[in-house]
Amino acid sequence: MNTLIDGFGRKHTYLRISVTDKCNLRCFYCMPAEGIVWKRKEELLDFEEILRVCKIFVKRGIEKIRLTGGEPLMRRDLPSLVGMLSQIDGLKTIAMTTNATLLAENVQLLKDQGVSQLNISIDSFKRERFQQLTGRDELQRVLNGLEAARRVGFQSIKLNVVAIADVNEDEILDFVEYVKDTNINVRFIEFMPFRDNNWNVDRVLTYAEMLAKIGEKFDLTPLETEPGAVARDYAIDGHTGTVSFVTSMTESFCGTCNRLRLTADGSVKSCLFFPAEVNLRDKMRAGATDAEIEEMIMYSLSQKPEAHPPAEEIASQLNRSMIEIGG
Ligand code: SAM
Ligand code: SF4
Hints:
Layout: E1 14-18, H1 47-60, E2 64-68, H2 78-85, E3 93-98, H3 107-113, E4 117-121, H4 127-134, H5 139-152, E5 156-163, H6 172-178, E6 185-190, H7 207-217, E7 220-222, E8 231-236, E9 242-246, E10 259-262, E11 267-269, E12 278-279, H8 281-285, H9 290-302, H10 311-315, H11 322-325
Parallel strand pairs: 1-2, 1-10, 2-3, 3-4, 4-5, 5-6, 6-9
Antiparallel strand pairs: 7-8, 8-9, 10-11, 11-12
The protein binds S-adenosylmethionine and iron/sulfur cluster.
């Protein structure tokens, strides 16, 4: 029975876990320009601790777990964590979001251990622009990772593209074209504000703007979305691939939110844009029982706001940066 129900009747079935705050890229919209202080190894939950927390969450009703970061593949031996999680009774899906730089060499093992859904982040197909956006000349490795993932085959492969006005808006149609003869879903994500991430409202390429631009060249048909989905999905006439828009800034989907987050250092966050956190790590290490951990999770859920504030207000909050929370 699912008991992860908040004060607004929202049932939570989806947990996103940041397994590390470290990353080998420096995407300007994610990583604060002055850098962050990396957590020491002992500050992070170890695999046994992650497994314990996940078992508690799944017992309470979580059905899907996504591994994210930082860059999840920077965490040593990640496939063995996937193998541990895939043994949890009642857990239906293990997904991962990755920048794909380290994917080619790990992808078969990840699939064998239980990852069935993969989101790959790529914001440009142009080498120089990719380097400007991410601070690293790694486009080729990302493309190799993507190709390897396609060869291995997953239940779903999605491309995450953060759409930023005057940065990569001229590539939107290229991305749509790219998925033509594939089973890939390309998702344009509206640029979201986090601590020191160069956000301002003029840089948000909106859902409406993107839809209009794509609509000039392609016929789009809205698709039914699953409950709790964060994206608006469309079929593209003549394409096997599909296109989606993550509209957090212009049309929020808070009303059907089914997500909870666990940071790499063991804090539960009930909302991406809500700074309050409940830290489980120290209590676990001090000998807390599963019942006490459950109680803390339920407390975090009880504090979940009904909706996130408008973008400008979010931008002025003292939230953690995206790289520290895990997208
Ligand atoms: N390193 C992995 C990656 O890049 O896929 C996983 C972590 S990353 C924080 C997760 C997702 O958040 C990525 O798809 C990234 O593009 C997205 N993201 C990061 N900062 C963002 C922002 N300010 N606005 C919108 N999406 C953002
Ligand atoms: Fe790293 Fe992903 Fe953030 Fe880019 S978006 S800096 S790849 S965590």
